[in-house]
Known about the structure:
This protein is of the alpha/beta class. It has 10 helices and 13 strands. The strands form 2 sheets. The chain has a 7-stranded mixed β-sheet with strand order 1-13-6-5-2-3-4, with helices on both faces. It has a 6-stranded mixed β-sheet with strand order 7-12-11-8-9-10, sandwiched between helices. Helix 3 (62-74) links the parallel strand 3 (46-54) and strand 4.
Amino acid sequence: MQQVEITDIPFDAKLNDCQYDWFVFGVGVESRTEFVLDRLSQKKIIAERTLVLMFPDVAETPRGDLIINKISKTFQKVEVKIVETNSQVAIWKLLRTYFLEKRGTKILVDYSSMSRAWYAAMLFWFWENSNSHADLRLDFLYAEGKYTKEIAEKDVVIKDIEIVPGCVGAMFRHAKTVTVFGLGFYGYMSLCACEQVEPDILYTFSTIENPIEDFVIEERAGNRELVERAAKSFRLSVCSVASAYRCLSEIATVHLNRGDEVILAPMGPKPHVLASILVSLANRNVCTLRVRHEKYVSDVKPSGRIILTRVKFVSVDF
């Protein structure tokens, strides 16, 4: 049986002079992209090869050219690929092209500016092909963002509710539906998504750290109604993917043992999205949803903190 091993790694303490086989880097409009490259260069991080995934609206723009030049000065053998936001198929094709051979056991992935479809597709592909990647180590790097009220108070409307790649869950109706919502800025979007899912039992979780001063996520319109409805609400640190994973896994295990359907809907920061995806991979009966809106183009500046999570797939014999 295959399971997930997750470790929170202090970025400043553990990455000095570290060498990777691959660096996979997402490039969007966010200026924390340059911050990550500068920090990796300062710490003399080395990668034998680099795969750059770039959104179409950034490709062949002055900013896109600037980032590519910066990456090329820091890393070797750079491959640049333009990928649509929701194209997990394109990600799988790239992985088959570059990672099918039995090498590349140490991979650094900066998912700070990635679509969740991209890093979910990567995790699912490596999970499915872990037998051909002995001792695979995936280090997921996230540059925490510095958000503004202008970003947090956007009016957004649901475009789609989709299953995250590889996180479909069980395909039959259970006794009850249990949904765990990770609260983000856009409370009404979360509330609308909850009403479409119609759970029998609701949980919510949010970050311990408020991303904006004097701006409480749980008190946002829409989020407040969800917290009031919830059987229980949790607050988890954005800095610990391992802790979020344990919390969500425990909720899922309790309800799956009762014959319930379990759905995770992380609307908050990407480390909590990563934890949810890993729960679905480790327990194939758990579904993780992605609620999409159309207003993604915002420059998110770096807060200065980098969160690093090490993921390994391990075989467990019973």
